[in-house]
Amino acid sequence: MKNVNLIAARKSKGFTQESLAKELNYTKQAVSNWENGYSIPRTADALKVATILEKDVNFLFFDHKVQESHTGENLA
Q1: What single string gives the DSSP state of each residue in 5-46?
Q2: Number of C-alpha atoms within 13 angstroms, CB side, residue 41?
Q3: Which of 29, 31, 51, 55 has the most neighbouring CB atoms within 10 Å?
Q4: Is residue 13 part of a domain?
Q5: What is the count of structural domains for the chain?
Q6: What is the CATH number of the domain that holds 30?
Q7: How many CA atoms, within 13 angstroms, populate the side-chain half-sphere of residue 18?
Q8: Is residue 63 included in any domain, yes or no?
Q9: pLDDT value, residue 76
Q10: Which pTM does this prediction carry?
């Protein structure tokens, strides 16, 4: 399930996956995995992401209402 909140927040702040990853000392692949719903960062790093993107950590990683399947189907 794609994490549309994380994708939108990252793009609205002008970050690429690579630039956000560099800011967090992660790989671009890790950020891609978060955005595609394959994994989430450790709690401390999720909080860093939320701070950098100026969003609530729950909004970015735990709000299942906004998750979409890979087909674009809204699961809420």
Answers
A1: HHHHHHHHTT--HHHHHHHHT--HHHHHHHHTTS----HHHH
A2: 26
A3: 31
A4: yes
A5: 1
A6: 1.10.260.40
A7: 0
A8: yes
A9: 41
A10: 0.81
